[in-house]
Specification:
With 365 residues, this protein is mainly alpha-helical. The protein is 70% helix and 5% strand. Helix 7 runs antiparallel to helix 8 and helix 16 packs antiparallel against helix 17.
Length: 365
């Protein structure tokens, strides 16, 4: 019974509500083309991934997070192998080579990288025992991140790769790197943007330009955002009802069960439903911050900071993208967008947070 009391049931409840709500919205947005010969029934497949994710979440929650850090280098190496395998043998969908197929299962290797990079960084920082050198410390930290980032960018998946930057910065700040040095690094990125621009693919450049002016290509690169904004704005306070959103049901909003699931929420359940979803995300982030304060050591603090930041940044980018206040990146909405790799990764991340909470409260109690 002690083990059960040490679990953060509020965090579990908030996560499961988001997952179940996501399954409902996936059903609502795909019932007109509910069966796909390649994927089967979308909402049932997501439900099965959710059950598997729930099992993984509880298994990980009952593993001491110190053990996860001890084997983090193995996860990291396996992630690099999977990223390289995806680059060499992965399937190409819509011009992107992001999925590696194992029998009937497609694995998005960049999703797995999110967890393994955080764990590997935590291992590196804790091995330094609080003595992070400005040159050597930052250099090795960015090497850990940049190798998988380069492979992810090559897929190409620039949006996912950029997720690691704010996550790493938060962790660096926690281990004692001064803000001015982090500011210098950001300044370096800003200064190098003209060179980075030359390396971007044409569709990536077009996405950035249409973000600044969506009307410049309303039937092309700006189409997704414009239709998403129409869907969200037309939902009113209570929405048009499940399976009654015209923009979604008539397929004006593309990728509405994956990247643009938030547009479905806005149109079909309105501002009221959107507010509930936002409050749930804020609650999960708040619980993550609370776990940071409870952590018994720097390892637990860094894990909780890294995972909480990752979930928060993904949520902000996806919602900002669908509302047109951030560029389109293709980052899914955590726990709600259709996709097994994303859902399992995020539920494993919650499992690690639960592990930090369980070990910390057991230690304090």
């Amino acid at each position: 019974m002690r083990l059960q009391r040490d679990l953060d049931y509020l965090l579990i409840a908030g996560t499961l509500i988001l997952v179940l709500f996501g399954i409902i919205m996936i059903y609502s947005s795909t019932h007109n083309f509910a069966y796909n010969p390649d994927f089967g029934t979308y909402y049932l497949r997501q439900f099965m991934w959710a059950i598997f994710g729930l099992i993984l979440m509880f298994v990980i929650a009952n593993i001491d997070y110190q053990i996860l850090i001890e084997v983090s280098h193995i996860f990291y190496i396996l992630t690099l192998v999977l990223l390289i395998a995806t680059f060499l043998f992965g399937g190409r969908i819509a011009g992107a080579q992001r999925w590696f197929r194992l029998g009937p299962i497609s694995i998005q290797s960049s999703e797995i990288a999110k967890i393994s990079i955080i764990l590997m960084l935590v291992r590196f920082f804790t091995d330094q025992k609080g003595k992070i050198g400005i040159v050597s410390g930052l250099f090795f930290a960015f090497i850990i991140v940049m190798i998988p980032m380069a492979l992810i960018i090559k897929q190409p998946d620039l949006g996912t790769a950029l997720l690691f930057i704010p996550t790493v910065f938060c962790m660096l700040y926690i281990v004692g790197v001064r803000l001015k040095y982090l500011g210098y690094i950001l300044g370096g990125f800003a200064f190098s943007f003209p060179f980075i621009w030359l390396l971007l693919k044409e569709y990536q450049k077009l996405r950035l330009l249409t973000f600044l002016n969506p009307g410049m290509d309303p039937r092309g690169a700006g189409y997704n955002v414009i239709q998403s904004q129409i869907a969200i704005g037309s939902g009113g306070f209570f929405g048009k009802g499940l399976m009654h959103g015209t923009q979604v049901q008539l397929n004006f909003v593309p990728e509405h069960h994956t990247d643009f699931i938030f547009a479905v929420i806005g149109e079909e359940v309105g501002f009221f439903g959107v507010l509930i979803i936002l409050l749930l995300y804020l609650f999960i982030i708040f619980q993550g911050i609370k776990i940071v304060t409870l952590a018994r050591d720097m390892t637990g603090v860094l894990i909780a900071i890294g995972i909480t930041t990752l979930i928060a940044i993904q949520t902000i980018i996806n919602i900002g993208m669908t509302m047109g206040i951030l560029p389109v990146t293709g980052i899914p909405l955590p726990f709600m967008s259709y996709g097994g790799s994303s859902l399992l990764t995020n539920m494993c991340a919650i499992g690690i947070l639960l592990s930090v909470h369980r070990c910390s409260t057991k230690f304090l109690g």
